[in-house]
Amino acid sequence: MVSALFKDWTVRISALAWLAVLSLYVVPGVGQTFLETFGERYAQIPTLLPVIAAAWIGISRVADLNERRFWVILGVGFACWFAGGLPLALVSDEHWSLGFDVVSEVGYLLFYIFMILAIELRPHEQHTGSLNEKERQLRAAGLTLLGFFLLSYFALVPAGFRPDSLASSLPAFVMYVLLDIVIAGRLLWMQRDAWSVRWTALYAWLAAGALIMTAGDIIEGLSWLDDTHWVPEFLIFRSGTWLDHLWTVPGLIFVFAIRARHVQFPSEQRVINEPPTSQRTTRAGHVLVISALSLPFLHYAFYAAGVFQDTALRPLREVVSVTSMVVLGGLAISAYRALERQRDQMEASELGLLNELAAARKMDAVARLADSVAHDFNNLVQVVRGRAEIIGQQIETGSPLHDDVRQIRAAAARAADLASQLMTFGRKPVAQTTAVRLHDLLRRSERLLKPLLDDRMRLQLQLHAAADVVRLDPLQFERIVLNLATNARDAMPEGGTITIATATPDAGSRGQTGGASPL
Q: What is 434-513's CATH topology?
């Protein structure tokens, strides 16, 4: 798989950019001061640009609208990460101000918000129904609002009322670690639910990048506790050391993940999309309830653990926490109400189907009764018609009884037609057979079968019958071929060849089969 990925030019550019950054740390002669400045301000730029390009390249060739949304939102998220690091790269220390801190925090937090929004689209699934769309909108709105409340809690409130408290980034790193864990866990869960090599590889690579980011945030957060002297020296984050690569390696891994959806894999690997066997979905109401409780929980946990020492900001942060709980709780109630409405609609639909089933059973009983009565009635009518014929032959020519016999025979004929109609109503439809060319029908069925098979399966037609004209029902024949091919596919989970062959029977079998070419 990795060899196939390195055939993509985006992956090659990303790998070269990462190797160029790595070379600065291993080539002798590069000063430590330069490395510290480069690691703090510029190291992420050459590795993030290929990620943004990889996410947006090829979007126009994606047919599914939901998947296109996924790539667009993912690219926007990495662009926000890139924008969050631009102030460090463009603004010198003497011109640095509190506003640039806020801009950076906004950019980084928007990256997490867009990342979560993209993941919740679940692009490997087929989304149908208005409820799925409603839940997606509620989940997107809830996660966006949660990001706004987190930004207000950790950055806007301190920046507006106690700028000096923003100097300590430990609480923000705790928030980032939690978001990293949520993203990595969600990606690993979806990786279990994926149904092709492409989506499995994509989610696995994304999860690996998120886990490395988690390690980076944990180490950088622990560095703020350096004054306690219990953090090991090699885990103290300092720019210009190997720890800088905790922020450059994820860029390369994310490019691997994104291009895994588009590169050409070897034919023996299973890459064709198939319907998932089961869907383990998380309702929007569950996500919103957890979101509503998260910020109040963090608030009281931080102050109880003594992470926050600035008691003057506590009332303002409590207002933000309670407001987030009320707003997100309201969205959760909306989600559950939408679910209840769907349940009511399903119950009404089920009741309607039960009524239709009862009516269909009644009609079936009536049809069976009509067929039985019509059959007996037709037997009686045939007796009447036969007797009328005999009487008509025995009456003398010119007798006035001839007119009566003629009326009896006409009435019997109309009764026979009515009985025939009733028997047609009560019987199941008969297959409409016609003469067709069997080979043409199989070639047409081949086009229907190929989308059902993945790259590990091969369909082979061996059409050797000399005379392929047969009489059958084409629709029933295609249905039989599709069922046989589907059963053969399910019986060969490791792949194989499905062969459909025709042949001209020998003389002995032709005498037994009536000359038809066997399939």
A: Heat Shock Protein 90 (3.30.565)
